[in-house]
Amino acid sequence: MSVSLFHIINFLLIFLAIVIGALYVWDLLFGRVNQPLKWKQAIKLGRVSDVVRKLEKQYPDKARFYSWWLVMEQLKEDKVPGDLAEVGVYQGDSARVLHHLAPERVLHLFDTFGGFPEKDLQSETGKSATYTPSHFADTKVGEVLRRIDGNGNIRVWPGYFPDSAGQAAERHFALVNIDVDLYNPTRAALDFFYPRLSPRGVLMVHDYNEDWAGVIRAVDEFVAGIPESMVFFPDKNGTVMIIRNK
Ligand SMILES: C[S@@+](CC[C@H](N)C(=O)[O-])C[C@H]1O[C@@H](n2cnc3c(N)ncnc32)[C@H](O)[C@@H]1O
After folding, report:
1. Cis, peptide link before residue 195, omega less than 30° from 0
2. CATH class entry, domain 50-243
3. Could you give the 3-state DSSP secondary structure of residue 171?
4. Residues lining ligand 1, CB < 6 A?
5. Pocket test for ligand 1, best of 180, 190, 209, 236 (most atoms within 8 A of CB)
6. Tens of pLDDT along 12-65?
7. What is the pTM of this model?
8. In what order do the strands lie in the sheet with 83-87?
9. Predicted confidence (pLDDT) at residue 174 exceeds the cutoff of 70
10. What pLDDT digit, counting tens, does each position of 157-172 carry?
11. What is the number of the ligand 1 atom nearest to the C-alpha of 92?
């Protein structure tokens, strides 16, 4: 049997594809890339719960996961008082991480649990204007709570934010994760939570990128009116963080 150049090139291409595929799967399963030293030390000292270790493996955006973990550690070290909140929960993937990173704090969850409100979409431009109320509509409070699988420290506030805030307006907050993609609810969440943030408390806003121009506009406008600046996180979609001054 004669081996032609065509066969050799074919063999090399298939071999290369298998190696790249195996490396990808290996990284997904055992990837240790970008683990912060502080995380590795906490693992060695047995300070990270089994559930958090499992969530670290499962959560696809490692940079986002570690930024939450690092912020939560700092809040504990600085003894910053207050609850946790997330505006924009969808199916609860990020809420699950937030709850298990600090299960001793009350976590408030705000979402329509029925997709983007029509009235918020009307003022959007660019890519976000192509979204419809059916986006993120496939979720239910009961399923979100089952997915989080947490303790009794979770309060759910379904409905249009900020109208849905109810008695959460009487609370103070240590960390708020804002992930609503659009101008109106991002601006409303910044306006609502900033005055209720403990000193050294943290606001994190996800999707600060050109695809979500409303998020950039809301954050830039808001930051122009407060003494604090924002810090950029290199997670997949871009998160900005505002730490309330003492
Ligand atoms: C990108 S999803 C949240 C994703 C979630 N944080 C995660 O990481 O899995 C955005 C969510 O914001 C919610 N949302 C947008 N505007 C809202 C508003 N004005 N009031 C309540 N929820 C809103 C949508 O219903 C949607 O579930």
Report:
1. no
2. alpha beta
3. coil
4. 88-90, 93-94, 110-112, 115-117, 120, 136, 160-161, 179-182, 185
5. 180
6. 999 999 988 887 777 666 655 579 999 999 999 999 999 999 999 999 999 999
7. 0.89
8. 154-158, 107-111, 83-87, 173-178, 197-206, 239-243, 231-233
9. yes
10. 999 999 999 999 999 9
11. 9
